[in-house]
Each structure stands twice: as structure tokens, then as C-alpha cells.
Write a structure and sequence with these properties.
Elements (H helix, E strand, L loop, with lengths): L6 H6 L7 E4 L3 E5 L7 E7 L6 H7 L1 H17 L7 E4 L15 E5 L11
Antiparallel strand pairs: 1-2, 2-3, 3-5, 4-5
Length: about 120
């Protein structure tokens, strides 16, 4: 992994502004600047891991906290009863563009299918 700071590390350090939705000691949730749904919030661990596989292997409790934070975000956004999606993209072919693991919390409207149509 590159030593260069990621965009998310700069947001965590408050060097770049973001609309923060929720924060815990180990996670930060903020609105995506290019939302793909009415509600689109990113949940990141404050400690950097490249992707989901690396995170799960190194810190399963941290991964559980990210998932719990995603559930809290859904509650705060009022989408728990209508439904929401939590997505982790891993590596470029899956759409990961910032290589600091993060969950996308999507909802607030009818969501379509995901992946390539076959």
C-alpha cells in the first residue's frame, strides 16, 4: 500500500471538509459527494486498510464496528424500515476508487439491481 495519504484520511483529519453524519471512536460516516441514491453515506474506519479482505483479516472487530455504524447511519437517516443497502467495493474492477476500505450506505428510494445485467 502506498504511503500517500488518501482522501479519506484527509477527511478523518479534518483537512478536507465533509458533511459528517455520525462518528465513533473508530469510524467516521459522511455523505458521498457524488451520491448514487437519495441517501448515500460512506462509513470508513479511522485506521486505513486497503480493502475489505485486508480489513477482515487484520481487524474483524473493526469490521463489525463499521457494519454497526452503517446500521446506525440507516437509523439516523430514517431508512431502516424502507430498506437500505450496504456495499463494499474491493479493487478497481468492482468500482473501488479510494483504496481505504469503506462501506456505502444507500437507500431512501427504490434501489435497482446491481452488477452488470446479463
Amino acid at each position: 500500500m502506498s504511503d500517500a495519504e488518501t482522501l479519506f484520511e484527509k477527511i478523518i483529519a479534518r483537512e478536507i471538509p465533509a458533511e459528517i453524519v455520525h462518528e465513533t471512536e473508530n469510524t467516521l460516516a459522511f455523505r458521498d459527494i457524488q451520491p448514487q441514491a437519495r441517501v448515500h453515506v460512506l462509513v470508513v474506519p479511522k485506521k486505513r486498510y486497503r480493502n475489505l479482505a485486508e480489513f477482515a483479516a487484520a481487524d474483524p472487530h473493526g469490521l463489525a464496528e463499521v457494519v454497526a455504524t452503517a446500521a446506525k447511519v440507516a437509523e439516523l437517516e430514517g431508512i431502516t424500515t424502507s430498506g437500505y443497502r450496504v456495499v463494499f467495493n474491493t479493487e478497481g474492477d468492482a468500482g473501488q476508487t479510494v483504496f481505504h476500505v469503506h462501506a456505502h450506505v444507500l437507500g431512501g428510494e427504490q434501489l435497482g439491481h446491481f452488477g452488470t445485467a446479463r
